[in-house]
Specification:
With about 90 residues, the protein is mainly α. The chain has two domains: about 30 residues, no CATH class; about 55 residues, no CATH class. Helix content is about 35%, strand content about 0%. It contains four helices and no strands. The longest helix has 12 residues. The protein is globular and about 45 Å long.
């Protein structure tokens, strides 16, 4: 509920998530961003370096229903790694 406690608080999906979170029951998620099984992605290094969520996930605060914003394929990642200053949040 980290995101939904701040954005889209009245969204239909959070009406299902909040009670489940309170009761501790598991939610059935519909995966939006598909990565191969051999890929492990740790968000923490990107967040610690100032890469905002919207860089990869798009304008989630404006999405009533999540959709895939970027391909997340290797060439897409390399574009950012080659010129990261374009994607870092202003300090």
């Amino acid at each position: 509920m980290n995101c939904h406690s701040q954005i889209w608080t009245n969204a239909r999906c959070s009406n299902r998530c909040a009670p489940a979170t309170a009761s501790g029951e598991s939610l059935q998620w519909t995966r939006v961003n598909q990565l191969p099984d051999f890929v492990y992605f740790n968000h923490s290094i990107h967040i610690n370096k100032g890469v905002g969520c919207n860089t990869c996930h798009g304008p989630v605060d404006q999405m009533p229903l999540m959709y895939q914003h970027a391909s997340l394929q290797m060439e897409w990642c390399l574009e950012c790694h080659r010129a990261p200053q374009k994607y870092l949040a202003a300090a």
